[in-house]
Amino acid sequence: MFKKVAGITSALALTLGIAACGSEETGSSFDSIGKQLEYEIVGIDPGAGLMKLTVDKALPEYGLDNWEVVEGSGAAMAAALKKAYDKEEPIIITGWSPHWKFSKFDLKYLEDPKGVYGGAEDINTIARLGLKEDHPDAYLLLDQFNWEPEHMETVMGFIQDGTDPTDAAAQWVSENEDLVSQWTEGVNNVDGEKLKLLYVAWDDVIASSHVVENVLESVGYEVELVQVDAGPMWAGVADGSGDAMVGAWLPTTHEDYYAEYEGKFEDLGPNLTGTKQGLVVPAYMDIDSIEDLKE
Predict the structure, then answer these.
(1) CATH of range 122-274; options 3.10.105.10, 3.10.28.10, 3.40.309.10, 3.30.300.30
(2) What is the CA radius of gyration of the chain?
(3) Among 129, 114, 138, residue whose Cα is nearest residue 187
(4) Tens digit of pLDDT for each residue in 101-156?
(5) pLDDT tens string 234-285
(6) Where does the signal sequence lie (predicted)?
(7) Residue 209 and residue 225 in contact, taking contact as beta carbons nearer than 8 Å
(8) Is the peptide bond before 270 cis (omega within 30 degrees of 0)?
């Protein structure tokens, strides 16, 4: 269980009444960070592997028993970050990249000398068993889907700026025809075959899922995007009620789900490499390591 359960309101209110990090009063000293933040880290949804890593491993490993992780959502985390950043107030969030926040704000990861958060992860495409036989062209396209973090962040940026995810995906696809043609190489057009893609409401997965939806529809598929939590996403592909997902963070974030359903899905491998996760702070904060949180 997480050490503290709080809703979006708590996450947004976290930054209220906190002294500016660069003020004379705080002096940006390490030993005052916990008190300034009331020993709270702004988290995301409770089903995220990043939350489990932070609560079950990072806090105990670094002796941060007096710290708590506030449950919320990716949107609540981003709102709390913006509120603090605009006022140059201190804040610590559970963060990951690629994510649009790194292009909007000057942020840094706190060093993780104990290696709790591991190295860079991959984002994999996972398909239900039998998809290759039932929908060989969709399978081939999904297997060939591969892009870079900057591609994903561009789509995420469009969405963050107010563009509907469907329109953002269409804009990106139209501007990246050469890359998209690599995904569709050897793929035949179909006539209205139906596919169901499952995804979680994380900014990166929203971006990738809508881009894949757009490209699949361009070759004739009728795609239904279904938003679910991480557990049901994996369960749906494993039991065949969903055809595929393109947002499996491995080997750490979704480690438990991978182990639980192994043998009941097909792993098509990474569609994006070079991710990172951990605790993130604004660059103006005079703190560099998770170890600095221990008083």
Answers:
(1) 3.10.105.10
(2) 20
(3) 138
(4) 888 899 999 999 999 998 778 999 999 999 999 999 999 999 999 999 999 999 99
(5) 999 999 999 999 999 998 889 899 999 999 999 999 999 988 889 999 999 9
(6) 1-19
(7) yes
(8) no
Residue 8 is encoded by which pair of tokens? 């979006």
Phi, psi of 53 (to 5 degrees): -60, -45
Separation of first and last alpha carbons in the chain: 24
Q: Are 21 and 248 contacting, i.e. CB atoms less than 8 angstroms apart? A: no
Confidence of residue 29 (pLDDT cuts 50, 70, 90): very low
Q: At 57, which helix (H) or strand (E)? A: none
Is there a contact between 248 and 87 (Cβ–Cβ < 8 Å)? no
pLDDT digits (tens, 9 = 90+) for 155-202: 999 998 999 999 999 999 999 999 999 999 999 999 999 999 999 988
Those residues with Cβ within 8 angstroms of residue 257's Cβ, 6 or more apart along the chain or in another chain: 230, 231, 234
Amino acid at 168: A
> Measured between alpha carbons, how far is residue 48 from residues 11, 19, 189 in Å?
16, 30, 36
- The domain ranges of the chain are 8-119+277-293, 122-274
DSSP state of 58: I
If we measure between CA atoms, which residue out of 123, 121, 134 comes closest to residue 267? 123
Output the CATH code of domain 8-119+277-293.
3.40.190.100
Pairing outcome for strands 194-199 and 222-227: parallel
Rounded Cα–Cα distance for residues 54 and 48 (Å): 10
Hey, how many other C-beta atoms are within 10 angstroms of the C-beta on 288?
Answer: 13
